[in-house]
Amino acid sequence: MTQSHTGSCLCGTIRFQVDGDFDLFYMCHCRRCRKNSGSAHGANLFSRSAQLTWLSGEDAVQHYAVPQTRHARCFCRHCGSAMPLAVKSAGILVVPAGSLDSPLTQVPDGHVFVADKAEWDQNLEQCRRFERFPPGYE
Q: How far is CA 13 from each of CA 19, 53, 55, 57, 121, rounded to the nearest angstrom?
């Protein structure tokens, strides 16, 4: 059965739907994905067959490609949220996992570009956990 997912940006200007299955789910630790996400890695879903439909705000989707590389991204020009990117030359749809609003039960397939992993991205499962901001930062 083919899946359907919906997603949006942080400010709600952009809404989209993805019809089809995701082939792969990777967390990428390359320097560029870390810059894109502002975090330890990018978390992206990949599909060669899923179809992307912009439901609203398509005119707010900004595309950026790093010159002389294969690295590109789409984002909301208002709030900066990462948005899906159709790489037509490769026939691949890349969907940032965090942009989805519908539940995603797919488990990541793995980590890629781990040689570029941030120095502080080690043993994170041992860090303290809080349900909300820690005391004094609420």
A: 20, 14, 10, 5, 33
For the record, the structure tokens of 97 come out as 């996992």
Instruction: Provide the total of helices (H) and of strands (E) in the chain, helices listed first.
Output: 1, 11
Residue that the structure tokens 């912009």 belong to: 54
Quick one: CATH architecture of 4-120? Beta Complex (2.170)
Q: Cα–Cα distances in Å, from 32 out to 29, 116, 129, 130, 136?
A: 8, 10, 27, 29, 33
Please provide the size of the chain in residues. 138
Q: How much of the chain exceeds pLDDT 90, in percent?
A: 70
**59-74 burial, b for 16+ CB within 10 Å, e for fewer?**
ebbeeeeeeeeeeebb
Calpha distance 23→105 (Å, rounded): 13
**Mind listing the pLDDT tens digit for each residue in 57-107?**
999 999 998 888 888 899 999 999 999 999 887 889 999 999 999 999 999
Question: What is the residue extent of each domain of the chain?
Answer: 4-120
pLDDT at 36: 87
